Amino acid sequence: MSEQSTDKLTKLKIDEVSFFHLYERYWKKLYQLGYKYLGDVYRAEGVVQEVFTSIWQRRDTLLLSEDTIENYLVRAVRFRISRIYSDEVRKTKKMDELLQRQTIGDNNHTEQEVLYRFLREDIDKLVDCLPERCRAVYVLSREKGLNNQEIAGNLLISEKTVENQLTKALKFIRKGLEKYPLS
């Protein structure tokens, strides 16, 4: 490696040849360090590659000396490993939050389904209690989706009678459902 003096620090000048020597000298030690903490061949190789890529990209501004280069490289690998761990912790927390939200949502959804089933059963019971004509008007309106004119034509009654019977049915059902909270 060629050296150049700057004050009391001897700066390493990094060119292609010196970079290759640096890589050959330290890659195995850095890889072993990465593998020791990560336990994964590919991730350890990736960390070493990132460190050397960073050195090459900053070769003109990086102040390193023969005495500090090894320490610098080890710290750089440890820093990248630390970042990997913190990213994994962050991802795990995010996944836990999403899973918890989904579980709460699923529980809430199940609870809503049960409440809907109870409500539907209560409405059906109340409809069964309606007088025959009133029940027929309600069923044709709310369950079959017919309008007042169509109901009047089917039952051979006036539209005004349909309106009155529907009003009576809805009032009776609302009264029967007062135990359910409005929300």
Describe the fold and architecture.
- By secondary structure, the protein is mainly α.
- The chain folds into 2 domains: 2-94, Orthogonal Bundle (Rna Polymerase Sigma Factor, Chain: A); 130-183, Winged helix-like DNA-binding domain superfamily/Winged helix DNA-binding domain (Arc Repressor Mutant, subunit A, Orthogonal Bundle).
- 76% of the residues lie in helices and 5% in strands.
- The protein contains 6 helices and 2 strands; from the N terminus they run E-E-H-H-H-H-H-H.
- It has a two-stranded antiparallel sheet with strand order 1-2.
- The chain is rod-shaped.
- The two termini are 76 Å apart.
Describe, in short, the structure shown.
This protein has 183 residues and is mainly alpha-helical.
Instruction: State the shape.
Output: rod-shaped
In total, how many beta strands?
2
Structural class: mainly alpha
* CA-CA gap between termini: 76 Å
Q: Within the CATH hierarchy, at the fold level, what is the topology of the largest domain?
A: Rna Polymerase Sigma Factor, Chain: A
Oligomer kind:
single chain
Mean pLDDT: 84
Name of the CATH class of the largest domain:
Mainly Alpha
Which regions are unreliable across 5 or more consecutive residues at pLDDT < 50?
1-9
For the biggest sheet, the summary is: 2 strands, antiparallel
Strand numbers in spatial order across the main sheet: 1-2
The CATH superfamily of the largest domain turns out to be RNA polymerase sigma factor, region 2, helix turn helix motif
The Cα radius of gyration reads 39 Å
Helical run tally = 6
User: What would CATH call the architecture of the largest domain?
Assistant: Orthogonal Bundle
Q: How would you spell out the order of helices and strands?
A: EEHHHHHH
Number of domains: 2
